[in-house]
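Hey team,

Filing this mostly as a record. A colleague (T.K.) asked me to run one chain through the structure pipeline before their review meeting, and I want the input and output archived in the tracker in case anyone asks later how it was produced. No errors, nothing strange. Just documentation.

Input sequence:
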Amino acid sequence: MAKKKSGGGKGTSGEGGSPVVPKKKSGGGKGTSGEGQTSTGLIVTLIFFILATFIAGTFAYVFSNESKASVLREAAAKKDADNFKKVAEQNRMLHIISRIALNTESLEDRKTVESLLQSNNKDFLALLQEEHNKLYYQVSDSLKNVDKDRDPERAKAIADYLAPNSETLKLLSDDFKWDVVGDKPAPGPRKSLPQLLREYAAVIRVEQAARDNANKAEQDVQKKLEVSIAANAAIKKSYDDNLAKQKADYDKDVAEKETRIAALNAKVGAAAAEQAALTRTSAVEKEKLSDNLQKVTKDNVEIRTRAEEYQKRLLEQTADLLTSDKAKAKVVKRDGDYVQLDLGRSANLRERVTFSVLPRDATWTGEVDFLKRLDKARDRNRNATPEQVGIATKDMRVKGAIEVIEILGPSLARAKITYETDGIRDRIKEGDELHNPIWNPGVQDHIAFAGLVDLDGDGQDDNEDFMRILARNGVVIDEYLDLRERAIKGPGMSASTKYLVVGPSPDVSLSSAIGTNNPRTAAITAAQVKMADMMTKARERGIQIISDKKFLVLIGVKLPPRALSADYGSPRYLDPSSVPAPTDTKKDEGK
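Output structure:
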């Protein structure tokens, strides 16, 4: 713009102050040559100055932008370097955490972790928690996929066992923890991964073994069940066959009975016809028939008497198991009214067990014979004593009885003498033998009893006390007669039942004295029938029948010297409403 203005004047100076003269006019005067040269230099200088300023400004602008880009690039490079350094440090920390988890860390690793924890490095704490979770789930997945290819069934069992909610994974999570010490995690977990893997591999093996055992037990139970089903089927078949046979036999019996009834009816008809014919006979024939009837009646009485005697003889001749009973122990010492015996805890001996005392090497034969003779004598006189029936005391082999009161050791016990047959001439002494046919070490004998057992001689039953005596001797009662309800109770006699103890027979002569309609008569009759039923059942099963007196002597219970008759019709066995009220004899006499 300055150039245009400088050339606009005709020989005059511009507004800038220095005139510009064209060359064709330069030679017009002497004074103007030097000024023209000076103006040209200034113009050139000015041009160079402008160009230099422009170039400098351009370079300054370019270099300024380049400096800013360089600063940005330097900042980015520094940031990348910091990130790389942070990642490297993070990777280094991950390696250290992994080595600690695998129990392969160095002392320097431990120091590094402790230093980071002391400095409360939040990045490290977050990384530790994140890596712990990753390692935990990796371990969990590894455990679940054990033997996945080789044994899918085992792998499934392990996966089921290590389900996310299972107790085992909870324990794994608890064990693989960095415990908190103060307010910071510990330098390492409670247990390393190899240790956890070994422990839980052992747990899995145990669990698998338990599953295998359970499967085997289930298979064994299944086999037993199949065997049981087959056995039950066989039993059912046998039962059905027996039922069919019994039905056939029943039908056959019914047919035979009907045949016999028809024959008897024919005979009855014939007898009626014969009786009608006899009615028309002479008085001599009637007298003859009367004599024959009396003879038949007498024969019937004789047959009944013989049958009763046969039944009694059969009871006496039953194979006596008591004669084979052996001594259970011996008296080793006597001290006043007490003795010590060579039997104790090792034989399961208990307190209050009783024993009969016999001389050394004695058997029950003599005592059983004595009791049989005494029973026969008491059939004639219920209150008879041995002396009254002519049985000498020397025939009584039992020297007395004892009751255990204290167990002193494996083979030693102390007992009290409950009675002595002859405490002066034949006292219980050292070497005497102890017997009790119903007590055996470690074995429970089974018995049943029927009738009234009188322990004190008052004629009333002491059956409850008798049952307590049996319990103290370890005896199981299979069956017994409840006189109050006149009912047979208990699981029932079986092949295990050793004896049936029978009380005295009911006195049927009392029935005729008090009348057949009296409730006492009904009680006596009911007791007699039930006792007979139990004895029949015992004979059918081959069970030894023994009288109550004989049995009590053999187990070491003292008999009363005298005893009243057994009262099976006692009011204690009757319903009070069924007992007739006593009559007022004085009032009747006044009438």
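Quick notes for T.K.: The chain has a mean pLDDT of 75. DSSP finds 14 helices and 15 strands in the chain.
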